[in-house]
Description:
The structure holds two protein chains of two kinds. Chain A is 19% helix and 33% strand. In chain A, helix 11 runs antiparallel to helix 12. In chain A, strands 1, 2, 3, 4, 5, 6 and 7 form a seven-stranded mixed β-sheet that branches. A four-stranded antiparallel β-sheet of chain A has the order 9-10-11-12. The two termini of chain A are 35 Å apart. By secondary structure, chain A is an alpha+beta fold. Chain B is α+β, with helices and mostly antiparallel strands. Among the domains of chain B are: 50-193, no CATH class; 211-372, Glutaredoxin (3-Layer(aba) Sandwich); 564-662, Alpha Horseshoe (Serine Threonine Protein Phosphatase 5, Tetratricopeptide repeat). In chain B, helix 6 packs across helix 9 (389-398) and helix 13 packs antiparallel against helix 14 (479-492). The relative contact order of chain B is 0.05. At the A-B interface, helix 1, helix 2, strand 5, strand 6 and strand 7 of A face helix 1, strand 1, strand 2, helix 2 and strand 3 of B. Strand 30 of chain A pairs antiparallel with strand 1 of chain B.
Amino acid sequence: MIPSCKERGKVGSNIGKEDTRSQKIISKNETNPDGFGSRLKKELDLVDSSKGRWSTETFGEVASIRLKSLGKAMMKNGSAEYLHLQSFFDSEPQFDVLRPSGNKLDVIYKGDQIKVFRANVSQVDDKKSDFRKVLKDLAAPLLSLGEPHSKFKIFRVNEEGEFVLTKVIVLFYAHDDNGNSLQINARWNVVWTKAEVPLIRKIELIDYEEIHSVSEDEQFFVDSTRAIIPENTDAQEQLSKGLLHWSRGLEPNTGVSTNGYNGLSVGDLNGDGLDDLFVCQTGGIPNRVFLQTANGRLKDHSELSGANWLNDTRCVLIVDLDNDGDNDLVLNVPNGIVFMENDGAAQFTKRQEFLAKGAPFGLAAADPDGDGFLDVYVCGYGSVWGGVGEYKHHIPHPMHDADNGGANLFLRNSGKWTFVDETQSVGFNHNNTRWSLSAAWEDYDNDGDLDLYVANDFGRNNLYQNEFQQTGILRFSDVAPELGVEDLSPSMSASWGDPNNDGIPDLYVSNMFSSAGNRITTQSQFMTEASQKTRDHFLRMSRGNTLLQGRKSQDQIAFQDTSEESGITVGRWAWASRMMDINNDGWQDILIANGFMTGEDPADL
Amino acid sequence: MGWAAITRLLAQGRSLSGREPNSCFLNLGNQDGVAQFADVSAATGFNFSDDSRALGFVDWDFDGDQDIWMLNRTAPSVRFLQNNQQTGNHFVAFHLKGVSSNRNAIGARITLTTQDEKGKEMRQIRTVTTGGSYLSQSSFWMHFGLGKHHKISSVTIRWPKGAIQNFEELEINQFYQIPEGGEPKKRPRSTKTRSDLKSGPLVPPALSNAARMVLGNRPLFPPYQSELFSNPSSAIGLGKASLVSLWSAECPHCHDELKEWTQEADSLEEAGFKVTLLNVDPKSIQKELVRKKQQELSLPFEIGLLAPEEVGAIDAYQQAISAIHLPLMTPTSFLLDEKGRVCVVYRGAVSAHTIIEDLSLVGLNDKGLIDSSVPYQGRWWKTPRGADPNKIALKMHDDGLTKQGIRYLQAEIENMEGGEAPERIRPLFELYFSLGRLFFQMKRQDKAIEALKKAVALNPRHLPSVKDLGRMLYEAGELNDAIPYIKQAISLEPKEIENRTLLIFSAMRLGKTDLALAECKKGLKISPSNSDLHFSHGLALQSMSRWTEALQSYEKAVRLNPQLVMARNNMAWILATAPDELVRNGKLSRHLIEPLLKLNIKDRPLFLRTAAAGAAELGDFETALRLLADAQELASSTLEPQLKVDRSFYSKKEPYRSVESK
């Protein structure tokens, strides 16, 4: 193809646009005959601050831009005098020392490669009005490493007379070519003087932390994909592109999704003792199935695998379903669950299919009744799409505690390639109309059988306790409310581990941290008509991720929400969030895959 | 901002929590039993600003630390992150194999106790698991970091079926495979060939809006009546395959494309193409621009001049058939079959060679076309349905081009009813339903009703059609016609109160109070706390002069929904005007109506009339007449005769009395 105009034709199509604009407005004022979505709209309007344009939100936007510019300006190498920074500040700005040093900094982690320092902020009280020196001291160590980066997120805005008080999450980092890095995490109180272009009057440290990572060659994590996925292949071309590409060239009815709800799984497909890779893909492009070769490279096995479905595949499990020693597949496609048997050489044959009740997301296999065969729990999100006009149940309601989602399924394995829906008979039908995304099995109470935690979007989560060991009957009951682990927030995933090494499983739940949500829900004019309880729910929904530490209390397991104390809430718009000991020090760390929708337009909604 | 608005903005390429750096929290150890973490995302290089979704952990290179496979929505969609830690910390890893338990040993619990040189112990647990974190699965190798602990004191495995095994003599820095009931076997550590994996990320190509899209089910090209500029011949849709291209005289890529097509005109003609160039330039200068370009290039093709709303309709079309809504770009070309149905869309310039090659697609059946619409080989679990003409028409409506939407649906219906491919794309009744909706939007009720009648005739069980039809007939005043459809809607969805209240109002307006009353009772049985039903019940009872019961129903309605001002008004009216002295209560009537007089809504004249009746009941005829005069100023013509009657009473210093129905 010949290269083409990046922008639409300047003249002709513009005319079409402009002429229709006036008609557009007319049509918006007409009423929709079936009132679709009006209920949801009301709810969203409640949280919509742009309606009526809150002055604090407008201010937050402007202040954000100012801080971004300040970050850039102070990190410009060579402008030692910082004369150009004057324009950001009020005439007599007051400053804390923004990079505490010496005895004001405690070493709180001393690994072989990573060291973490924290400031005792109460001791950092000497106000410095010479902001040039303060900023220079902050920037100097970063500049000495390489090109510094800065990021600011405003999470509170309060007006007080002629001043505006903001709280800001601050990040600076830089690294050199050998992988030596410096990262500064801080929170600031920034006081502004109101003006058309607001001026900084005061910066105070709320807390301060600094991470030094040393290395001989490269950073801790290095992207080495290119060597592993074979070059000049369809597979490499396919995986190098993202959904912004595929959504341009495929019809929506192929199932190509702009949201990208797809996962990947690592497991041994051909029984050679090496883990292989299954990459789930959106509709219109095939799943990619790879075998690992002896030298750690991947060989494209998609076509031969028989699992190169073109339908949107969200999740796959690589597990032995018939106990014949090779790993089989269970995967989901829109509205369906497919079980496939491995012939031993990673060629898979469809053995059974299920129609899901809700759009299927996460799958979790385990043997909770100890019969030796793996059963499968299927998370169901919203209800399955109907035809025209049949979508009214497809919107979560109420938004902060939705219970109108699609049902989850418990598919029990007979061992002979028949899976039976036993959701109801084992008690999983209780609290089963949430918008579920992930489920995680663990024997949290250490009684010898597996229990199940289910992470639900738009509302509270479930912890189903298994009574099998006590009664000999597979039966679950939801104990989340009494154990206080409902974690009322938009949950995307959950994983078990033991980060405090006390021998009792802990739970990490990924949610959404939203600085906008934090700003808006703390304003007095937010949802004035709603009860304080509802307002608190909304603030809680923006808090972010949750760590629930299991502990023994009078022979019972109880959970303690240590999220704030542990410092793990800001995982952003978090999807997969799992524990792994990245540096082999014996303490489980947390890794989070996050970010929702990056468009070409950098302005975030 | 509503849900739909967010979806629309995202489809236009906006961001929502985009460019967020991935997070890595380092465990710093405990403080008072609580694990402490620090965000080390940037320091470790894990802070990729991808829209990441899934994480799979595995020691891919068997070097004793865990690497990461990551899946993204953004490009590149896969990253392999090699763990490059250089701490010198020890590790041990186990791969369990169930024998009587499930083979993957899912649910097995490993408890590991280690010692450092000072004899200090550390205990860790891990459970074999799969699934869990979002749409991901990690390796079944259970990996333990040991720090500087140089000795494994014990390893306890509790197998899923309950058996417990203990091992005491295991070495650090080893990979052990352990079968249930058996002995651990070492797996060799990394081989030399694996240390050379270091390379770099997959490099995505630059994102381009240009695309060649094969449409699985060839939706019709939007009808247009362009003014012919040159080469008048038969219109498209009759005869051979055709190529329609939207172009602007000022677009350089259009120029290059048309020049190439002109050079290849013979090949195009020989292949059987009829080429139509549709110009999109502004009306005022369109002819002049086209003439100039024609002189410059001597285009041997039919040229048409599109009107702005036709450009708009084609723009809506090309957006509706695409997952992401990109504004129309020039040139955009369409390869049409002999029926005017689109097989291929080219966004951006396309060579004659490609077009001629694509001619073979026109002859394919739908299955073949769908298979050609995807870029790589694969298999369908369920073959997708085609592009949805309803969505195309509704997109035109959304863009303010409702007329074009209607024309589009009519053309598609005609195409289907012509027997060419009946219900090939979507069921016909859905198209009629959408047509009804769009006519309604155009305020063409007669046409809307006609379309919906067709939809219902084709599928009497399609609730939205039945419901809309009942309501439209009711609103058109055709109550007798409406009632059967409203009843049908009720039988399809008995719990939906809206249809039942509609039936009650229809019955009341027809004077069928018995039917209305019966429906109220049925509805209240299903939904005893529905305020609308109690209100309707009150209306029915009032019309039957059952004053006390009517008051009770209204009271329930008001209690359930204080916003129901008409229920309040009607209560006040009965209390002021009931013929039965025992029912009347002027003071209570005034108490009820007074707050309503503060509301400035369209029902205000009614409230004033009620207040007047209350004042008259209390003997204050002066106030009653004043209130009536206020009502008069605002009243509609339908209320005026009634006000006149009231006035005649009050001027004679007589209160008004409602008439008993027979």
